[in-house]
Amino acid sequence: MYQALLLIGVGGVGKSTVADAIGRVLTAAGTAVAVVDTDALAQFGPPPTNAGVPVTGFYDGLKCINLAALWANYKAIGARHIVVSAGIDTAAWRSRFAASLAGCTVQVVRLVAAPDTVRARLRGRDGGLKLERHLTALTEHEAILDAARIEDFAVVNERPPDVVATEIVTRAGWIGSLSA
């Protein structure tokens, strides 16, 4: 059986960091796992303006296409688990991303943290217009995720990444209780 975790949450909540930590936890336990940050799957631009290519959702669609290709390659070399960090905030996109992971049982995990924690993380990694966009969108994006309720479970990400990772893989049923 193939299994996937989609880590979602607002920008700066720690999706990529926790995905990497889950990869380390599973690898240490002897589990073959792929880890993918979808931000790296759509570094292309500008979006095409030719007929037939929708601009709305273009980048998320590109992420899904590329994720499907990566997953096929990882499966071919023996991966049975994949951890994906992604900015998914609707049921429709949850379905599209899940469909990109052919043959997987998919669980969506929402990472949450106090707004002040997220703001501090954003200030530590971003600058300029990117920082301002993330800070401005933070409250609105949190409300969108609250309303969408597309996660299977949520985990507070205000502890060391390996502790959060261990909680996630345990709650997902991937590994029995691990000592952190």
UniProtKB/TrEMBL annotation:
Domain of life (superkingdom): Bacteria
InterPro entries: P-loop_NTPase (IPR027417)
Full protein name: Adenylyl-sulfate kinase
Organism whose genome encodes this protein: Rhizocola hellebori
